[in-house]
Specification:
Helices cover 5% and strands 41% of the residues. It has one domain: Neuraminidase. It is mainly β. The strands form five sheets. A nine-stranded antiparallel beta sheet has the order 12-13-14-15-16-20-19-18-17. It has a six-stranded antiparallel beta sheet with strand order 1-2-24-23-22-21, with no helix packed on it.
């Protein structure tokens, strides 16, 4: 196996290299570039990234939330927030769907009529009480429908969107499964046992190399890669068959750039009733040399890189899926002197402009922006919901709206979750 490189991920040279790699994808040139947009610093540089990373501390201010005036948030100047759904209530009059409890991982899907759908998991832990729901918006951004896209599952935590327009909803339980769901709610959800039975957290699809990456929320969890049996370029992957693999990483120092290779999991379905697994050995223990990740959480693909978080050690990782090189983007133990230090990193999403948004499941209720060479800064801080956690960040197709939830609301009750929409000048000078 190739030896780990000796180049420290944290030194300025490595950060510049990683940033140049991201810029080279071309995907920085579109979408909201938060560091420039929220400060009103003018148009984004031609490369798509502002030449300086401004300090946002002076731009944040406290506002009341529309439709939820008892809740206040700290957001950048020029932004507003409204409540769009509340657990146990119908988000749209006439709909038969009451918004689910404990809203967690989410994403947004464009619809053919110019509208979009925000999907959200339900992390209710009782057997059969989980699932996922959807909010349908028309082209004017008005809520027009709400409905379930999967029912009868358990502790649906995160997941991920696919390039072919479905949502992978993941059960965070021992021997949990992944369910492929139709955001439009027209087709029934389908179990995808080939993706393994384990304590699933999130999923991200690499459409270039045609793999699915999966995180595992265990202190000694693995990072997984699924190779579909069929996945034509630009087409729809068959997730009904394929090969589940675990990451084996060269080198022991995560501060160095390291190389990843993949080993097949012998039995992806241990002890999962009805699916033929028979070893009884959890997937994470089947490959002795597999790398251990401390509490795998959010996972998102953008521009040739899979970003994922590990909450046990408060780290954000970047895996170059072409070169199979693994780097750290954020490490609280190393970057903790920066403000704000993030506690219990959780859901992750990336804007079309390349901004990495991390939801915090800790003492604070924040969405924090991080990235190579970026001093982390708060984008959102929900006041008074300290018994909750912030979950499910996802941008509308035009990048002008950001959806997210307070999973347990102000009272810390999973049946009082709140889902919000934030609007503002993500595009500098456009709103």
């Amino acid at each position: 196996m190739p030896a780990a490189t000796s180049e420290p991920v944290f030194d300025p040279v490595r950060r510049r290299l990683l940033r140049r790699m991201l810029l080279g994808s071309g995907l920085f040139a579109v979408g909201p570039v938060l560091r420039a947009a929220v400060t009103g610093s003018g148009t984004v540089a031609a490369a798509g990234l502002a030449s300086n990373i401004p300090n946002l501390a002076g731009t944040l201010h406290e506002i009341a939330v529309d439709n939820d005036p008892a809740t206040r948030m700290v957001v950048p100047a020029g932004f507003s927030v409204r409540e769009v759904a509340r657990s146990g209530h119908r988000p749209v009059p006439g709909s038969d769907y009451a918004w689910h409890g404990a809203p967690d991982g989410g994403a947004v899907f464009a619809m053919d009529d110019g509208g979009w759908v925000y999907v959200s998991n339900s992390e209710m832990p009782a057997v059969g009480s989980g699932g996922a729901g959807a909010l349908r918006f028309n082209a004017r951004g008005e809520q027009v429908d709400s409905y379930a896209i999967v029912r009868g599952t358990t502790n649906n935590c995160a997941g991920g969107p696919t390039p072919w327009g479905t949502w992978l909803s993941c059960e965070e339980i021992s021997f949990g499964l992944v369910y492929e769901c139709d955001p439009a709610g027209k087709r029934p959800a389908a179990q995808r046992p080939a993706l393994g039975a384990f304590t699933h957290e999130a999923a991200a699809v690499d459409p270039l190399h045609r793999h699915v990456y999966l995180t595992e929320d265990m202190p000694d969890g693995n990072l997984y890669r699924f190779v579909p049996g069929s996945y034509p370029a630009g087409g729809v992957a068959d997730l009904g068959s394929g090969r589940l693999e675990v990451a084996v990483v060269t080198g022991s120092d995560p501060r160095q750039t390291r190389t990843v290779h993949w080993v097949r999991v012998p039995d992806p379905l241990p002890q999962r009733r009805g699916f033929g697994g028979n070893t009884g050995t959890p997937t994470r223990w089947q490959v002795r040399e597999a790398e251990r990740f401390n509490g795998g959480e959010g996972c998102w693909y953008h521009g040739g890189i899979v970003y994922f978080s590990t909450k046990g050690d408060n780290r954000i990782w970047a895996l170059d899926t072409g070169k199979q090189r693994l780097d750290l983007v954020y490490d609280k133990r190393r970057d903790g002197g920066l403000a704000p230090a993030i506690n219990d990193v959780d859901n992750v999403t990336v804007s079309a402009g390349g901004d990495i948004l991390v939801a915090e499941d800790g003492a604070e209720m924040r969405l924090v922006v991080v990235g190579p060479g970026v001093e982390p800064f708060e984008l959102i801080n929900i006041i008074g919901h300290r018994g909750s956690e912030i979950t499910g960040p996802g941008f509308s197709p035009d990048g002008r709206r950001l959806y997210f939830s307070s999973q347990r609301g102000p009272a810390g009750n999973s049946r009082d979750g709140r889902t919000y929409e934030m609007r503002g000048p993500f595009f500098a000078g456009k709103d």
